[in-house]
Amino acid sequence: MIRYHLQAMTGGYHWIEAHARPFVADEQGMDGRTSGLRLIDAQVSQEEELRRQAHTDQLTGLLTGTRRSVGWSG
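User: That's the sequence. What structure does it adopt?
Assistant: Structure tokens below.
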């Protein structure tokens, strides 16, 4: 499986998922390739939202995992 972020003729961008595998007609080996494509804009959008939620504190809106303790010397 491969994902592509392609620009449409209208100027917008879409996420496309491609699945491919060899096509073998006989014992001679690979004759070609069969593939299928599907539009996955909604799926990628949901994944990005989950990623954002996983890395953002819901109360403060700040990124998580980037906190550093501040020490005072003296």
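Strands lie at 2-7, 13-26, 29-39.
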